[in-house]
Amino acid sequence: MGRLDLSSIWEYLVAVLYVTGFPTQIMPTAEAEETPAGQKTDSDRLDPWIEDGNIVLAVQGKYFRVHRSILSSYSAVFKDMFDSSQSSEGDRSEFIEQCPVIQLHDAVTDVQMVLKAMYDRR
C-alpha cells in the first residue's frame, strides 16, 4: 500500500479545532501496565487508546487503538482505505494486541487532535 496522504482532512480539522480551542499537546494514555518483551511500551500508546478498538494507527512511533467503524463513519478516506485493504489484511505483518497496524505519515499531534475530536463527539 502506498503512502496515505490525509493532509487536507487534517488541515481542515486542525483549523476547526484551533478555532474552537482544542488542546494541542500530546496526551498519553492514563493507564500503565506491564508489557512482555517485543511489545510496544505504554509510553508509545497515546490517547485515544480504546481497549475494545479493532485497529491500531501507527504515527511517528506512537500508537492509537481505535475503531475502524468510527474512522470510516467520519472519513471517506479511511473507509476507502479499509475497504481496499480487507482482501490483503491477512498479509499484514504487524499486529498489536491482535489488531492490525496501519502506518500513517502525518504529524502525531495532528492525528491525535483529529481522533480526539471524533471520539469526544460520541
Distance between the termini: 30 Å
> What summary fits the major beta sheet?
5 strands, mixed
What Rg, in angstroms, do the CA atoms define?
14 Å
The CATH architecture designation is 2-Layer Sandwich
Overall structural class, as computed from helix and strand content, comes to: alpha/beta
CATH topology group? Potassium Channel Kv1.1, Chain A
Helix content: 25-40%
Unreliable stretches? 19-26, 30-38
Q: Counting H and I runs of at least 4 residues, what is the number of helices?
A: 4
- The CATH class, by name, is Alpha Beta
Which helices and strands, and how do they pair?
Layout: H1 7-20, E1 45-49, E2 55-59, E3 62-66, H2 68-74, H3 76-85, E4 95-96, E5 99-104, H4 108-120
Parallel strand pairs: 1-3, 2-5
Antiparallel strand pairs: 2-3, 4-5
Q: Could you explain the architecture of this structure?
A:
The protein has 122 residues and is α/β, with parallel strands linked by helices. It has a single domain, classed as Potassium Channel Kv1.1, Chain A, CATH 3.30.710. The chain contains four helices and five strands. It has a five-stranded mixed beta sheet with strand order 1-3-2-5-4. Helix 1 (7-20) packs across helix 4 and helix 2 (68-74) crosses helix 3. The chain starts with 6 loop residues before the first helix and ends with a helix.
